[in-house]
From TrEMBL:
Family the UniProt entry places it in: Belongs to the EPSP synthase family. MurA subfamily.
CC terms in the record's Gene Ontology section: cytoplasm
Protein known as: UDP-N-acetylglucosamine 1-carboxyvinyltransferase
Positions that bind phosphoenolpyruvate: K22, N23
InterPro entries, per database record: Enolpyruvate_Tfrase_dom, Enolpyruvate_Tfrase_sf, MurA_subfamily, RNA3'P_cycl/enolpyr_Trfase_a/b, UDP_GlcNAc_COvinyl_MurA
Positions bound to UDP-N-acetyl-alpha-D-glucosamine: R92, R121, P122, I123, D124, Q125, D306, I328
Catalytic activity: phosphoenolpyruvate + UDP-N-acetyl-alpha-D-glucosamine = UDP-N-acetyl-3-O-(1-carboxyvinyl)-alpha-D-glucosamine + phosphate
Domain Enolpyruvate transferase intervals: 7-407
Record localization: Cytoplasm
GO biological processes: cell division; cell wall organization; peptidoglycan biosynthetic process; regulation of cell shape; UDP-N-acetylgalactosamine biosynthetic process
UniProtKB keywords: Cell cycle, Cell division, Cell shape, Cell wall biogenesis/degradation, Cytoplasm, Peptidoglycan synthesis, Transferase
Amino acid sequence: MAQMVINGGKRLSGSVTIGGAKNSTVAIIPAAILSDTPVVLDSVPQIKDVYNLMDMLADMNVRSSFHDHVLKIDPTDIKLVPLPHGKVTSLRASYYFMGSLLGRFGKAVVGFPGGDDIGPRPIDQHIKGFKALGAQVKEHDNSIVIEAPHGLHGNRVFLDMVSVGATINIILAAVRAQGTTIIENAAKEPEIIDLATFLNNMGAKIRGVGTQTIRIVGVPHLVSTNSHMIIPDRIEAGTYLSLAAAVGDGILVKNIIAEHLDAFLAKIQEMGVNLDVREDSIFVYPNSQLSGVKVKTSPYPGFATDLQQPLTPLMLLADSRSIIVDAIYPKRTRHIPELIKMGAAIKVLDGQIVVDPTKQLAGTEVTAEEIRGGASLLIAALMAQGTTVINQAENIMRGYDCIIDKLHALQADVSYSGKESF
Ligand SMILES: CC(=O)N[C@H]1[C@@H](OP(=O)(O)OP(=O)(O)OC[C@H]2O[C@@H](n3ccc(=O)[nH]c3=O)[C@H](O)[C@@H]2O)O[C@H](CO)[C@@H](O)[C@@H]1O
Ligand SMILES: C=C(OP(=O)(O)O)C(=O)O
């Protein structure tokens, strides 16, 4: 088990540069096996999910190398193998191999995915999409077995709810299918646009990404000719903005696409956070007076569920009550008992997170049950007097690029002991 040790109570300053988006990267790596030629990705975040996906690629005889944020993937000698367990359960995005193996081989055997334990995460819409394209889907030995003996054929799929994962998985399966697939009620996240840009640059015909209707005309082959630069991670950016507002004495957060953070920026400005939004960076001024706000998460462009936890510690500094309603993952509250251990006046009441003004947090031993819960504890620890030990800190490493170096650059007193020493 990895631990992060934080000596809090210090004001931080300096600048931090945001890495490539986790949720783009973890879709684009599985998508790379749809290419007939080697693929090069740039601005890839140094996170645990990337290393786990590389291990899964190796199981399929796909060579990959990762240096200085450049990831090279050569799928030319790929072999169809079942991916029943092992790394599959270490992250959510392993389920994208269902769509991409199906698109490449017309068959996939993939175990049930892991990822953050933030409440029930069914995949019925993914399966509905695969079936609509002509695949047969069954469960065997804790794996999903998907086969399209007569090939995949484009079709219309109306998603019952807006799902990032189902939208991406259907794109991956449809991109080399025969005919046209139309996804309605599709998710609009910027990471889906990034995936489509990557695939279109290799010859795919995907139109309408970023709207609720996506149209995919299948093509027989994909060929990569240029490297693809991953977009900046809006969730990492929101986390550092929240940290900067909570403990900063003036912090510049660089490599940001501010439009991807509209709902988050509007909310922290409503709290009274003083920001200077520049072309591709945001300067956060030291804050004095903050007010409580109400946050309700919803699919993009709404307030991201992945940012409710990193925002929570900042709410403790407000002079009035804040309320969070996570409409996407109502059970995403495993960090709350840990924040209470640190002295936070916070509770879960009727499915809502109620955050009351808290004068001072105190360092103690807590556990990061998942990525964003871990980020929330990290910010709280930087605010707290004394030492905080975060157990299971490897969960934070699933999604935050070079986090220890970035925190050191801001003068934070943080150390990490664990296998993932990046
Ligand atoms: C790797 C990745 O990109 N992860 C993100 C992705 O997760 P993920 O793709 O798993 O999340 P979805 O967008 O699919 O989930 C949205 C909602 O739909 C429900 N649902 C989804 C699929 C399905 O078949 N059936 C169903 O009921 C889910 O339980 C959830 O309540 O989007 C989430 C919501 O923005 C983010 O928190 C995750 O960071
Ligand atoms: C929930 C998240 O990730 P995943 O879907 O990969 O578990 C997240 O990044 O906050």
